[in-house]
Amino acid sequence: MERDGAPLSVPPLRILPDPLVARCIYSGKCYMIPLNQCMSFSDLYEDVFRTFQFLPSDVIELQYSVPGCEACFLRSERDFQMLFCGARIHNLECVDISVLKIGGSCSNTYSVDSRSEVVDEDDYLGEAFRIEVHKSYLSDEWSSYIHHVGEKFHGAAELREKLRKYAIAVGFEFVFLRNDLDRIHAICSNVGTEGCDWHLRAHSSANGCLYITELNNIHTCKGVVRTQKHKLLGSKVVKTCIAADVSYNLTLKPREIMSKFKSTYGFDISYKVALKAKQSAKEAIYGSDADSFSKLSWYKEAVLESNPGSSFVLEVDPSTNRFHRLFVAYGGCIEGFQFCLPVLYVDGTFGKSIYKGQILAATGRNGNQGFYPLAICICDSETETNWTFFFNHLKSLLEPQGRVITFISDRGTGLLSAFDKVFAGHPHLFCYKHLVANLAGKYRGKGNSVMIEEVKKKFFKVAYSSTEKEYRFNLRLLRQEGGAEIIDPFLAEIPVEHWCRAFYTGGRYGIMANGIAESFNSWISLERLMPVYCMLDQTRIKQMEQIGKRRDEAQRWTTELTPKMEERLKVQMEKSRRFSVHYSSPGVYEVRSEWSYVVNISEHSCSCVKWQINCFPCPHGLAAIQAASENVYDYIDKYFRVDMFKKSYSSPIRPITNVDMSSSESGTDFMLPPLAKRPPGRPRVKRFKSIGETEKKLIRCGRCGKMGTHNKKSCTEPLVQ
């Protein structure tokens, strides 16, 4: 063709390739759409938005998959062009596009006027009548877990887990026709009633992974909708969702799991499912309670090899090969204890695993008034035999140090007789708080709460008496308040030198209660829930970290005494300013204010007895020391000094590696757990408190006007007319 004598140029004919077919999938529904490069990303996005009838406030995201990449984002024109490039490289004629709703409202009501204008009713309703904005849940991504043939899974367990979550998110149920490690075949549960053709087949390959070989992801049955409850939402699914929470907090309650699962995943689960899921998650993290005992032989070898100087005794019943008891003390703790105060708190607490048992512990006290774990024993119960076993091995650790140790206990079952056998002649103090609780139990049904509280106060004064005269005076008041028929038999069973300050001749460092032992029991409260091997290992890690942190902390101290004792010295020095001091003879002074006291600084004694009891100078003693122009630090016990504190934490607990556990000979030893009969009722994790430990709230009676635990209806007090 020519125009005005010039040849007319005709552009070459552009041949478009065959259109690419996209299969868009959302909530189990699917529709097909042809794609070509004349389209834009916005055209595809609007088509998907309109076809699946999303609301204007909804936000969706598109993802497609090609071999080698299971989820490619489709968010821009560039991503849209890369989709064609990927299809051309892999010679694909069809691409699966997953549609994910990631925000917006889920069920707002809209009205349409005559001009087909969509109006959001919430814009005109009051706040109380508006539907809340849709919240995103962690379960929203479950609907994208199953989407195309060739999808890869690392084992049958992963495929089963993701298939369950996918069915829960989409809102259907399925059954397995075949469920093996190398082959899985699942169909919709409505195949028999409604003829639904949804099905999935997966086969394993040489690399051990499973691949989806056949998938019809379209449901033809009714009722495919996501609900708040689902039959497949059992403990297996919930366990995978709460495993991290359980690992951080073993005390998590089933009610808390139910509430958190609802707010995080948007589904309702039952109490039974929550409880079973927690137990399964705990077992998956820490192993089973029964299998844990078989690891103790390896753990013993690992401790003795990595921590020289440690003591680890493991006893097994030779006839049944069942665990009997064990004793463990780490070398770093044994070495450091000789620089701590010469006192040991011994106490027993119960384990919280399914095999229960008792944990006997010996806990020391450092120069900064903190607890110092020394040794523990795991046994079946607090008996004289088990306490004797514990004390015998404890004695083998203490004797080489050559110190006289003062023991503090609560007079537990079997403890007293075992102590007298092993540590005969050693000082033994009784916790006055446990004594007063035992005394209060004598008044069960014999007195009101007001009288019992007065008896407690009077007993405290008797226990804290500093001299024999003060003891006799306070004892007389106690007998008058509580009655001699109860007080006298009770005190006759307890040697007075074990609980009253006036009769104890050794250095007790002001200790009256077994609080340090209770602190240790509370410190390992979480570990007591674990199987025995994990409990020992986690307790060791806590001790190791505690030693390291306290060692580093002490390096920053610049005082001569530990911080708490330095502060105590400042308070005592301030109190000593009010006293006048009068010299008598070398080292002997009379210190006066309202009262007069005799102080002998050479013998570290004062007539108030507090210097001898607390092993720390009282204000009267400090006043005399300053009057003698002496250095007050020379009269303070050596265990309160920073250099002794540093020495107590200079020996670390060495870390342990378990990479060779499976190849070790002891790692394959099989040990049966102890025989344990499950008690009736719900398992308890807290002990019953005695009558003396429970404090009832006092109220004023409306009839007699007295303070007590009775009210107007239950009042039996006689009224004077």
Strand content: 15-25%
Quickly count the helices.
21
Total number of β-strand segments? 27
Considering DSSP H and I runs of 4 or more, what fraction of the residues is helical?
25-40%
Widest sheet: strand ordering: 15-16-19-18-17-20-21
Description:
The longest helix has 23 residues, at 532-554. Helix 10 (384-398) packs parallel to helix 11 (415-422) and helix 14 (468-482) packs across helix 15 (484-492). The chain has 721 residues and is α+β, with helices and mostly antiparallel strands. Helices cover 33% and strands 20% of the residues. Strand 15 (311-317) and strand 16 form a beta hairpin. Strands 15-16-19-18-17-20-21 form a seven-stranded mixed β-sheet, with helices on both faces.
Write the layout of secondary structure elements.
Blueprint: E1 2-3, E2 6-7, E3 20-26, E4 29-35, H1 41-51, E5 59-66, E6 69-74, H2 77-89, E7 94-103, E8 110-112, E9 118-120, E10 152-153, H3 156-170, E11 174-179, E12 183-188, E13 199-204, E14 210-216, H4 235-248, H5 254-265, H6 271-286, H7 289-292, H8 296-306, E15 311-317, E16 322-329, H9 331-337, E17 343-350, E18 358-365, E19 371-379, H10 384-398, E20 406-409, H11 415-422, E21 428-430, H12 432-441, H13 449-463, H14 468-482, H15 484-492, H16 515-523, H17 532-554, H18 563-575, E22 580-585, E23 588-592, E24 596-600, E25 605-606, H19 610-614, H20 619-627, H21 642-648, E26 699-700, E27 707-708
Parallel strand pairs: 3-7, 17-20, 20-21
Antiparallel strand pairs: 1-2, 3-4, 5-6, 5-7, 8-9, 10-14, 11-12, 12-13, 13-14, 15-16, 16-19, 17-18, 18-19, 22-23, 23-24, 24-25, 26-27
